[in-house]
Structures are given as C-alpha cells and as structure tokens.
Amino acid sequence: MLLTSKLPDIGTTIFTVMSKMALDHNAINLGQGFPDFNADPRLLELVNEAMLAGHNQYPYMPGVDSLREVIRDKVSSLYKRNYNKDTEITVTSGATEAIMASVLSIVNTGDEVIVIEPNYDSYVPAIRLAGGVPVRVSMDPPSNLDDTFHVNWDRVSAAVTKKTKLIMVNFPHNPTGAVLTDSDLNELEKIIAGTDILLLSDEVYEHIIFTAQGHLSLASRPKLAERSFVISSFGKTTHTTGWKIGYCCAPEALTKELRKIHQFLVFTVPSPLQHALANYTSDSSTYLNLPEFYKTKRDRLATGLSRTRFKPYACPGTFFMLADYSAISDMPEAEFAMWLTKEHGVTVIPVSAFYASPDAIEANHGLVRFCFAKTDDTLDRAIERLMQI
C-alpha cells in the first residue's frame, strides 16, 4: 500500500524513546516530565464522588460550567483579565489538544508561524498539519550558571513578514526554565503593534515559578490578551499529567473558531475529572502553594548535582533543570543522554531534541534536562548514581 505521510520526518518523540530506555536499562527516569508521586488524596476522592453522583456521561462540549467558572475566577484574580466563561473559556484534552486546536483554527496554507527554539515538540507538527510554515527563531543560550536562555526579540522582529499569522511563546519555558519579564512583554507588544498577528501562549507551568514577581501571563496585558490563545494545564498543577485536562482562554472570536476544531478532535473531556477539578481548584491554595513545594525539590536536585561533575544552571520556573556535562564528556547531547542511561542508570533529556536539527552544532550546547518532579528518594538515588561518574 502506497501512503504519502503528512509528517514524513516525524518519528517517536524523544520523551517516549528515553522513557523506554529507562525501563529497558532499569534507570531512574529524570527525563520525561511527570511526577512519580500521586495526586492529593482529596482530589482522588472528589473524582470518585463525582462518578458516584452520576457525572459519567458526555459533559457540555466546552467544559462543565463549574470548572469554567473556577478558571474564570482564577485568571481574573491572578492576571486581572475577565474572560467570559461561556464564550471565552474552553476545557480541553490537555494543553497539547488546546495547542493543536488553536493552530488548526486560524492557520491556513502558506501562513507563517514563528516558533521560539528550543521548543516543545508538538508545535511544529501542528503548524504543518494546518498547512502553515514554521519559522524558527533561536533563543540566546545562558552566558553563565546564574543565567538562563533568553528570547532575542530583535531576531523575532526580523523574522516577521507579511505572511506571519501567529507567534507561539511558552513561558515558564520548557525545556530551559526561562521566564518572562516585563521587558519581554513590552518587546512583544512592539512587534505586533500595527499588525494582525495572533499569539499562542503555552503557560502550563504558570504555577511552578520561583521569581519574586511570579508569572507574567499574556492575559495580564490587554494589548496581548485581545489577540491571544492563553493555554494552561491542570496536569502540571495537580500532579495528574495522565488525566490530560487543560484549558484555553481566548477572545470570543478566537474561541468560536477553536471550538469548531475541538469538537471534532475530542468533542469533550472526561466528566468526573472536570467536576472533581472544579471542586478542588476552587481552593486557591492548591495552586498558590506549588512554588514552595517545587522550590524545595529544585534546591534538592541543584545541591545534589553540585556534588557531581554536572554543573546545574539557574531554574526560575518549571520543574526542569538544565545542567552542563562538559566536565564529563564532549559527546553530542543525544548520545550523552543515551550513554548516561545505559552506563549509569539515570535518564535525562537532551536539550538538542527541542531543535529542528538536533545534530547541528547550534543545537548542542552540552546541556541535558533533568526533571525534579520526583520524590526525595528518587532524586537522592539518582544523585548517588551520578556521583559515581
């Protein structure tokens, strides 16, 4: 049978590859970004209660009313943007589906979409499936261990053409942990001024941030919010990545188009999970306490890595930490990550995997990504192994 693939150069994601290697080699998996601890027992009880209460049939396509109310109130409180729960908030099957639906809803054949690289791996396939053309703009790497990657906004501005339909941003940033500043938002406002460019902001790590200023959502700036799909995830917030529950806040015109796609991608998402999350997230402490919870884990990993030959970089956001391995090897990042899994039983993700050309010199900075959303025991056992290198 002759098939013409729509994504001929796309294979299995690096996260799946490395997680399988971790299993095959009995390695400690600090690669793929998921917690190895369970969610709050109260949340699990609420799911059971929702099932017993009969919330087991198709919910309303955009999401159950109570959950959209909670999202509305949370965003209003944190970012001072008042989204209409009926026309501007949609509950999705994880942030990945929200990203796909957003891109498919507004990108047409030949439209250009600017992507900040390194970038999460679902962005470019979504653009290509919509018929769009990805335009990659690389971030500047950190200059020292106290620094992080930075967006070069002059480079972003230079990439804008008459065909630019969308700019995709992701902060707190996966894989680098970088966060937005007021200056970044100012520059983005300048770039889109006088244009019809739309924005997609992947903010799934909004509550895992360690700066005094906290997360700066695109929803907090009226000039940005009025043309943005702002996407987040309950999976990251409640330690339930396997539930795949996310949401998108966007102006009514954008939401209308997004829902046209959403209803045919998944129609809706599991009813009992939505009801449980609505009940649970109505207590703001469930997300406001996350920074302190993850800061302890971040510092535990950083302290542990400082006792090895790895050099950890600053981590102002997400539950990922980058580390330099130049004192150990000059192997390319992907090769080093596989070697580390096979020979020392600790799995990480090469940062080069987040670039269009992972083998290119420009994509290899001698960095790997560690996930610290793990129990203390998991982190300590991994450090013990890494100290043997």
UniProtKB/TrEMBL annotation:
<feature type="domain" description="Aminotransferase class I/classII large">
    <location>
        <begin position="27"/>
        <end position="386"/>
    </location>
</feature>
<protein>
    <submittedName>
        <fullName>Aminotransferase class I/II-fold pyridoxal phosphate-dependent enzyme</fullName>
    </submittedName>
</protein>
<keyword id="KW-0032">Aminotransferase</keyword>
<dbReference type="InterPro" id="IPR051326">
    <property type="entry name" value="Kynurenine-oxoglutarate_AT"/>
</dbReference>
<keyword id="KW-0808">Transferase</keyword>
<dbReference type="InterPro" id="IPR015424">
    <property type="entry name" value="PyrdxlP-dep_Trfase"/>
</dbReference>
<dbReference type="InterPro" id="IPR015421">
    <property type="entry name" value="PyrdxlP-dep_Trfase_major"/>
</dbReference>
<dbReference type="GO" id="GO:0008483">
    <property type="term" value="F:transaminase activity"/>
</dbReference>
<dbReference type="InterPro" id="IPR004839">
    <property type="entry name" value="Aminotransferase_I/II_large"/>
</dbReference>
<dbReference type="Pfam" id="PF00155">
    <property type="entry name" value="Aminotran_1_2"/>
</dbReference>
<keyword id="KW-0663">Pyridoxal phosphate</keyword>
<dbReference type="InterPro" id="IPR015422">
    <property type="entry name" value="PyrdxlP-dep_Trfase_small"/>
</dbReference>
